[in-house]
Every structure is written in C-alpha cells, then in structure tokens.
Fold this sequence. Notes:
- The protein is an alpha/beta fold.
- The chain is built from 22 helices and 16 strands.
- The strands form five sheets. The chain has a four-stranded mixed β-sheet with strand order 4-3-5-13. A four-stranded mixed β-sheet has the order 7-10-6-11.
Amino acid sequence: MGKVFKSTGLIALALMLLLTACSGGNKGNNTNEATNAPTNSAEPTNASTEEPAEKEIVELDLFVNMSWWPLKDWSGKVPEEITKKTGVKLNIQVAADDKQLPLLIASGDLPDLVYTATDLTRMADSDVSYPLNELIEKYAPDFKISQERIGVNTMPDGNFYTVRNAFSTEQEWKDNPKAIPGANGMTLRKDIMDELGNPALNNLDDLISILGQVKAKYPDMVPLVWDKDQIGQNLRINYGLKKSKGFVDIDGAARFYLKDENYLNYYLYMNRLYREGYMIAENFTFKDAQQDDQYVLNGQAFAHGGGNADSTNPQLKELGKTFEMTQVTKLLSDQAGIPMGGSGWAGMYITKNNKNVEAAVKFLQYMYSEEGQKLGLYGLEGEDWEWNEAEKYPVMKYDFNNTEVQTQMGVVWWGLIGSSGVNEALQRYAPESQMTQWGLSARDALEFNPALGLVSTEPDTEEQTIEAQIQNMVTTEELKIYMAASEEEAKAQYEALLEKAESLGLAKLEDWATAKYKEYQKNF
C-alpha cells in the first residue's frame, strides 16, 4: 500500500492517537490480540463463548481515572450481557480530577480495579498492583497474550501489570484493510469550492492557492480555522510529524521530536498561513474547543482544521444553513506519515486491595477476547450489528455515534477495557462516510516503531522534570514561530526554541531516551 506500514529500522512487529484521539486518540482504540486464533485479538484464546452456568455474581469496585468518562454506572444491555458472560458486575467511580488517583495510591485506599491512561508507572508497581503475568499463570493458564503485547507492556522488573488498549501490530493492520485510523482531518465549504470552479487540491501548494482565492473573493471570511487542541495537526500528518511530545529516530538514536527535519518546513508553512492572513491570531487564544465549530456553523470560516463533515453537516442542516462541508479525503504530501509507535493507551490494573483476584483476571480474559471486545465496542451481535464477512467489518444497526444511545446501551466505552487498535478502528468504517474515505487515505501514512513509542519519562524523575520544563517552554515559544513577521524570523525563532531546549537539559534527556530505546528494541 504505497508507503503504508513502513517500519523505522526495527523488526516491525507491533504498532499507535488518537489518538485519538486523544485517539489519539481520539484517544485510541485497542488491545486486541493474545490468541492462537487468526484474529487480531489481545485476548484469552480459549475464553469460552458458551453461556456460563448460573452462579453467584461477584461485585468489584472500579475506579475510572478519566474525569470525562461518560458512563457513570454499570447499566445497559451491554454491561448486563458482560455480567452474564463473566459473572462480574462493576461498581463504578469516575475520577473527579487528575489528582485523585495519586492520592489513592499514596493512601493505599485503592479499589479492586483501576482503569487509567496516566500514572501507569505508579500503578505498575508490585506494592500497588498484582503482576498480571503471575495471576494468569495461577488462575487462567489458557489466557494467552502475544509476545508483541507482552513486549510493549513489560516493566523494568520483568512483569507486566496490564495489557493496554489502542494497540495493534503492523500485521494486524495489514490484515484488516477496513480498519480506519483516527486521523485529524480538514473540511472545506463545498458551495465556495463550487463557486471557485472546484480548483485542484492535490498538494499543500494547492491548499495555499485555494485559501488565497477565498480571501480575495470573501475578505470578511476566515479562510482557515483550527480546533484549539488540534492546531496544525492535519498539516503535521502531511509532514509526517509527531504532535507534541516524544522522540524520533535519527540515525538510530532517540532525539527530541522537534528535531525531525520536517518540523521546520511545517512551521514555515504555518507561518505563511498566518502572515498571508489565512489564519487569525485569535485562533491561538480560543477559550474552548467549540469556538472553531461556531465559526464553521455560523458560516464565518471556509476551511476547518480538525473538521469532520459527517458530524458537521447534520448540525448545519438542523440550523437551516444552505451550505455544507466537504472532507479533504487525500494526503497532500509525499512526506505524510502517522507515527504509530507506542504501547497502547489505557490499561486495567488489579490492585493489591482486590477482594476476588481470580474473578478479576478471568473478567479481563473475557474482555480481551475477540468476543468480549466486540460485545463491549459494538453491542450484541445480530441485534446491534452484523459482521460483513466479505469485507471484514461490523455493520451497525443503530446510531453508533449518538452519545445518548451509547449511554443507554452501555456500549463502546466498556469495550475499551480490552480493545485492540484494529477492533476500535473497524468500528469507524462506514462505506458512505466522508471520514471513511479520508481514513482509508490516512492508512497509507501509518508508520510503526513500537520500541520508540515505549520511551516515556516516569513520574518523579529528573528526566520527567526536564521534559516538562521543555514542553512548557515549547507551548510559549512555538507561538512566536507561528506568528513571526517573516520567514527569516520564523527560522530564527525555531533555532532559538531548540537552543532553549538544550539549555534546559535536552542533551541529557536524549541520552537517557536513546539508552531506553536501545533497551526496548531488544523486546522486538
């Protein structure tokens, strides 16, 4: 598939949001796998698909360390079916903020289970959680997890304490051509494109040209508005760049992501958009992620960075607008890339306070199985969805993206407990969807380097302090590049940013990261 699935110098066995995400991930999607069967599941290969005999229900307390988590209790037909299959019912507590879990860890007052995407190192501690590998050996020897997933979840003590979701191997992505990665898109006003004669949009130069035509014809319109949390992200995809943290492989070493040779080109492109009046300064100070939507819904903007035509057009219709948005469905550069390196997103931990360890590990075995993943993510097969055997994707029978329906059914979110990246990505495939067409193009930009994705600083370490100081600096200094008065000034500001990073200890951070990178490469 073109440059799809290119590996960055490693044995490309394993996979990355959005996500998304945040996915990315969209926050992400997945953990499937672990099985002898030819599936993409992260699961107990021998998990029974038969209805368990009547047995006493085990209640376990779960702390969800995500204050935005939409499902506040274990209700709906999907959780009820999971309980029938596993004999486990969960009592849910959703975090009030990001300070609550560290306090629970420090006090030793953790519940039976913790589901989290942060504080992973603190949770992966034998004084806090049970090593999952030990529990599997003792209570569920038929719970098989692939070596790739073990590799990306193994801690320095040699144990793995969870199997994070939102992970699939490169091969699993190849085996599932309908799996749509969470990739930040861009939409354009269809009526205005028609008025302009539908000019060619095949590359980034074409985009600049179109924005210029819009500004000339509609001087009071904002040519391009961005989601405040995704400024420039669609362009980063087209330049093959990481978004806001982490490391890249440069000559076999782990280097700070902003040292990617394409970052300067990206910054200069963004600076040109700003200098030529195609972006507005206010975009950098939007108070929330809805302000950009209002520009679009009110007809004040032509292009929407981060836009999704499938979700925007129904809103426009409801508002009685006479125009709609069209999705940019192709990559605009041969440099495009979506780094998929990583170990997944969130994981479930069985704490040392767990009152029924055997029930907990068997619950996870089911949720990591193909059956458990699809039940949690999609709903009841036959009733809520059917599998398209010819094209290998789930066909939904309900409004899958309706949050009220999700809450009523208890679907989608509980599937994230054990879902693989591919199983999450398959639910995005809809033949009639514009975002599907964009996602199919984005697949051609997937790049895999799981060992590099594992390189992450740990809490309460010097490396994390250095990284945090650098990231705080970048947040401020990056704006100076975007808003520079000339291309020369933008280049100077980029060099100044890197110099400031060096003064904050970047060389020491990169030395540490390179050592970790080489260590993790051995797992693959």
